[in-house]
Amino acid sequence: MTIRPARPEDAAQIAALYAHHVRNGTATFDTEPPPADHWHSKVDLMRARGWPFLVAEADGALLAFAYAAQFRERPAYRHCCEDSIYVRADRLGHGIGTALLGALVDAAGASGFTQMLAVIGDAEPASVALHARLGFRHAGRMENVGYKFGRWLDIVYMQRALASPGKETP
């Protein structure tokens, strides 16, 4: 397995992987899968902003993707990011998520973020466990904030420091 920065030409495989999670799971609150051109634009945007978007692949097949984007658009949030990570359904439980999220944590710190938040849809136990393995701690829960597949869903917030916040730099 290789972990590398995402490229625009990965968009179709990213779209297919994510579509499975949209249609079958509650980790994402999307209800319609975005098309490949959405992911092409997202990869370009992340590159332009200097934010990490990584993929894990083996033998040319995309196994997982993860990215870290500014938590919210307001300027005071510019040092805080939110991670997103999705592993191909048939590759869950093989350590891919742990390796990829570890690489994302390092890349997000190197890109200038000092805090990373995980916003875990449906308080997904496997995602909570993955984040806890990598040093995230529970930071809160919001109840009944999403509605998908005929039921109300909670989200769990987890957080970890990437670097010690210091004096603001330009």
Q: Distance N terminus to C terminus?
A: 37 Å
Strand order, biggest sheet? 1-2-3-4-5-7-6
Count of runs of 4 or more consecutive helical residues: 4
**Which geometry do the CA atoms define?**
globular
Uncertain ranges:
none
Question: What is the average of the pLDDT values?
Answer: 94
Structural class: alpha+beta
- The percent range for helix content is 25-40%
Specify the CATH architecture.
3-Layer(aba) Sandwich
CATH topology: Aminopeptidase
Would you report the number of β strands? 7
Explain what this protein looks like in three dimensions.
It contains four helices and seven strands, in the order E-H-H-E-E-E-H-E-H-E-E. It starts with a strand and ends in a 9-residue tail after the last strand. A hairpin with a 2-residue loop joins strand 6 and strand 7 (151-161). Helices cover 31% and strands 34% of the residues. Strands 1-2-3-4-5-7-6 form a seven-stranded mixed beta sheet, with helices on both faces. Helix 1 packs across helix 2 (36-49). It has helices at residues 11-24, 36-49, 96-110, 125-133; strands at 2-5, 53-58, 61-70, 80-87, 115-121, 137-148, 151-161. With 170 residues, it is an alpha+beta fold. The protein has one domain: Aminopeptidase (3-Layer(aba) Sandwich), CATH 3.40.630.
